Amino acid sequence: MAVWDELTGQSEAIAIVEAAASASAIGGSGDSSMTHSWLITGPPGSGRSNLAYAFATALLSPGDPDGDAAAARQVAARTHPDLAVLSSERVIIAIEEVRALVATSQFSPSVGRYRVMVIEDADRMAERTSNVLLKALEEPPPRTVWILCAPSEADLIPTIRSRVRTVRLRVPGIAEVAALLERRDGVDAATATRAAREAQSHIGMAHRLATNADARERRERTLDIALGIRSVSGAVMAAVSLLELAKSDAVAITEQRDTEERTSAMRSLGIEPGGTIPPALRSQLRNLDEDQKRRATRSLRDGIDRIMVDLLTLYRDMLLLQLGVPGEPINVRILDRLQAAAGTCTAVDTLATMDAIATARERIESNVPPALALEAMLITAIRGGRS
User: Fold this and answer.
1) What is the pTM of this model?
2) Among the listed residues 333, 306, 341, 339, the one whose alpha carbon sits nearest the alpha carbon of residue 222
3) CA-based nearest residue to 85, from 61, 125, 49
4) I need a surface site. Which of 7, 42, 288, 375 has the fewest CB within 10 A?
5) Of 247, 186, 223, 208, nearest to 341 (Cα)?
């Protein structure tokens, strides 16, 4: 099975990186299709990191641009000796993290043709941090390849954009994502199609909705809360409920991973479960706790954003019904409720609510307390007065 087989709906992008990997595999390092720095862009859920690691696997597979099994397993586990990854759990990538990665990029490959450096979410670098990376891109070692991932080229500083080759991904179709879920995750066709539609073809979220009943239930609860707002006090209570949903979603994502990390750390330090931690080792576990707290903050913010994206699908469906636009709604499962809600207000009201959601996302990104941003947003969603 080729390393590209797990990607979906990105044939043009795959053709570009596959040609580069093939050129390098036959010793064509001077071929114009291969370069030392790449930028993979695309909307959330389009598979940026999946393509990055597939490309890395092809580059790290000796003589096989389709990726050999051993290299694929090592890349998947992030244990390949010639692969270095920066995947920050923080809101912003720290300059120290980039400096450490740049330092390791100077090493020669130990077993493969290249040393591959992957930075997920490269858009989270501040300008000062980006300038550290820029120096590495300007004068890279001959066998080092950088692969950056970001939503768009505009998210990186111009000097970095001028030094990378950009590969753009598109949003895959619902049918393509559903087919991937059926083939890879073994879910039935109806569940896969529903998950792909409600996730708006976001591959990661579609996988979660298709395989996690709790995630589906939390999404349904989000829509129920929004459709039930009838007053200002109801909007305030709805904001509290949505924030609790986001917190429970964040805990569900991070709790198991945090426990596994702590258990692994204790084992590696030679500490028995439930045993006393020696004073000399407490600082190492304290650093782990701080990293997990930062990840929890990031996960909560992501959970709130997922809720607002789900709300946008709700009001988008209502707007299309109000305007008489043909087509199947994203939330077709609750079509009767959508029609009833659309009749309680005008298209102008619905657009105002969608604008309020966009404003709330910007406010939360600017560190406005989420509860206040959600309250202000949901006051525009009051619908009972016109029913």
Assistant:
1) 0.76
2) 306
3) 49
4) 288
5) 223
Strands 144-150 and 37-41, bridge-based pairing: parallel
Q: What is the pLDDT of residues 347-387, one digit of tens each?
A: 999 999 999 999 999 999 888 999 999 999 999 998 754 43
- Contact of 242 with 374, CB cutoff 8 Å: yes
Backbone angles phi, psi at 164, to 5 degrees: -125, 155
Cα separations (Å) of 87 from 107, 133, 259, 381?
20, 15, 19, 37
Residue with structure tokens 């490269």?
122
pLDDT at 281 > cutoff 80: no
Sheet holding 115-119, edge to edge: 83-86, 115-119, 144-150, 37-41, 165-168
Residue by residue, DSSP assigns 129-166 as HHHHHHHHHHS--TTEEEEEEES-GGGS-HHHHTTSEE
Buried b (16+ CB within 10 A) or exposed e, 43-78: eebbbbbbbbbbbbbbbbbeebbbbeeebbebbeee
pLDDT score recorded for residue 27: 53
Strands of 95-135, DSSP E: 115-119
Q: Give CA–CA dist 259/135, Å, rounded.
A: 38
DSSP string, 175-236: HHHHHHHHHHH---HHHHHHHHHHTTT-HHHHHHHHH-HHHHHHHHHHHHHHHT--SHHHHH
Q: pLDDT value at position 387?
A: 34
149-168 per-position pLDDT tens digit:
999 999 999 999 999 999 99
For 278, the token pair is: 């020696």
Helix, strand and coil content of the chain, in percent to the nearest 5, comes to: 65, 5, 30
User: Taking residues 206-216, what's their average pLDDT?
Assistant: 93
**For residue 252, what is the DSSP state?**
H
| Sign of the dihedral through C-alpha 217, 212, 173, 308 | positive
Average pLDDT for 201-213: 91
Q: Quick one: pLDDT at residue 299? A: 83
Three-class SS of residue 312?
A: helix
